Amino acid sequence: MVPSNRLRWRLTLLYSLASFVSGIVLLVLVVLVSLTLPTDGPAPRVIEAPRPGPAGVASRLPSDNDGYQRDLLLVPGLALLIMVPVSLGGGWVLAGRMLRPMRTMNERLERISGRNVHERLALQGPRDEFRDLADTIDGLLGRLELALDGHKRFVANAAHELRTPLTVEHALLEEPLIDNGATVESYRANFEQLLAVNRHRGALLESLLTLTGSESARDGGVPFELDAMVEAALAGLGPHELTVAATIRPARIVGDPTLVARLVANLLDNAIHYNAPGGVVEVGVRRMDGYARLIVANTGPVVPPDQVERLFEPFQRMRRVADDGHHGLGLSIVRAIATAHAATIHARPRPGGGLSVEVFFPAAGLVG
């Protein structure tokens, strides 16, 4: 890529113009000074030169003051004309030195791609505007590297999760073909398993679409009652052998009711699924300090504190159970929906086992 010199030419012309204007101002000052000089001096000298003839002819030399005024204007004018090309050359060199850090950053940025996004500009030199710009770009590259790594992990995990049902489907389709004694009942049993695998994969795809839609959501929405939504979610829970302790108080928020309902459902499903037999699920909703606070806590296995953040990453879970209908996307969807609603999440392990998750939504009237 051929570097453009448009900015360098602009700076060169700017420096030259400043130099030329300064020269013009200096020349004007010289003219003004020359005009203040006295013009009436001593009587001009008369020099008579002998000539052949009856009388000599007198000639007058110009006064010294006239010559001084002429030289006073001529010399600065010539100097100003000479300084024009000199200032152009000096401005070109000076502009090049000023723009050298910019060219260095541009060359390094052109070499950075998805394969070497770990590289940085690392501009050296004194702390100035160019150094601040380079540090800002390095920070941006760091954030892009983290996002790219997360994207790669997400794609790899999603491919793995989708490959598993495909392998099972292939085996179920192949089994009756290689079994010469296959009966209608065996075909029927295989088809029922295929339908179950298909439902499992459909649920996974739906979760992936929800996660993507939640991350791309923006400000806006409608006001609704969070307490009523949580009560409806509790009333719709399927059969379980757990004790649910709920403390629901009025709390109004603004957002997408469909996405927030998915957030509540995922928290409840996570608290029920990863619980101890005969355990407890605690649910609370109330307004506090300008926020609508939703808390869902459960009993269950001990969660190491250093593993809490990992649980909110896609396809991460404390224990893996085949065909349990969970893909490790529940809490990652919760975080994506909370981020889309400018909400904050606080998760911490409980001393006796289990997890407590708090979501703080900006209360209605404080969003925007």
Concise overview:
By secondary structure, the chain is an alpha+beta fold. It has helices at about 5-35, 65-110, 130-180, 185-215, 225-235, 255-275, 330-340; strands at about 45-50, 55-60, 220-225, 245-250, 250-255, 280-290, 290-300, 345-350, 355-360. It is about 55% helix and about 15% strand.
How would you describe what is shown here?
54% of the residues lie in helices and 14% in strands. The protein has helices at 6-35, 64-111, 129-178, 184-215, 226-235, 257-273, 330-340; strands spanning 46-49, 57-60, 222-225, 243-248, 252-255, 280-288, 291-298, 344-349, 355-362. The protein has a five-stranded mixed β-sheet. A two-stranded antiparallel ribbon has the order 1-2. It has a two-stranded antiparallel ribbon with strand order 3-5. The longest helix has 50 residues, at 129-178. It is elongated and about 125 Å long. The two termini are 44 Å apart. The model is unreliable at 55-62 (pLDDT under 50).
